[in-house]
Design goal:
45% of the residues lie in helices and 14% in strands. By secondary structure, the chain is of the alpha/beta class. It has an eight-stranded parallel β-barrel with strand order 1-2-3-4-5-6-7-8, surrounded by six helices. The protein is globular.
Amino acid sequence: MKKLTIAILATTMTFFCSLPLESIAQINQKYKIGVIDLMLLKRQKLGALTLTKEIGADGVEVDMGGLGKRPTFENALANDSVRTVFLNKAKELNIEMFSLAMTGYYAQSFCGREEYKKSIEDCIKTMQLMNIKIAFLPLGVQCDLKKDPAVRDSVVARLKVAGEMAKKAGVIIGIETALSASEEVKLLKEIGSEGIKIYFNFSSPLKEGRDLYKELKILGKNRICMIHCTNKDGVWLQNDPEIDMKKVKATLDKMKWTGWLVIERSRDANRPRDVKGNFGANTAFLKSIFQK
């Protein structure tokens, strides 16, 4: 038994010693900092990976492509050769593609489209092919449960179906709603699927005047799959008076939550087109707080 233990320890040490220091640092991180290819203006473009590396982020959320009136997303990653290039580039740069985003549903109606299942199926299939465990599904303007409670039955029914599809595949679909945290808890109970969780967005409670830190605690560790860790555009996170990022970290630490903090906005109003400058500054700030 003693010899076996020594052998296991030796194998483990060999594995870690063979990794670049940067890889070891990422493995040990409780919180990882991510960016979004769509917000980098590189939707499903290979350059998003290179730019993510230059910005200093740990990974990038990759979009599924446009939706429009098509039955499913315009997804280049469904092509084996394209997907292989992305996977190889990510490995070369030591950048994680940690999530697939169905942002086509910001404008399109998840609760009204007849062919919604096909889009969910295609997203889940791509996740499996790329070993990605979380997808982002915004309910968007047409399925806003706060402004239009009448769509709730349709939203819940479809999320039940999507949740079971996700659970069967061993993945999670993170939804973004306009509801308060307590209302999201009720929504998740109504959906009743382990395959659906909340992709929390700091800007949602802040623009409604709700307490960001209480909202996090109400949802709790197990209901939040990922976090959009930014606010509306205007100033960088380090200059934003609406967010006390050290208090955010203390709250998440106490909740024992771990995962991806994803930079969506918080661009400086005086330099909105400076992609590298805006996302680089926010990445550096978040790392100074969450990855000390």
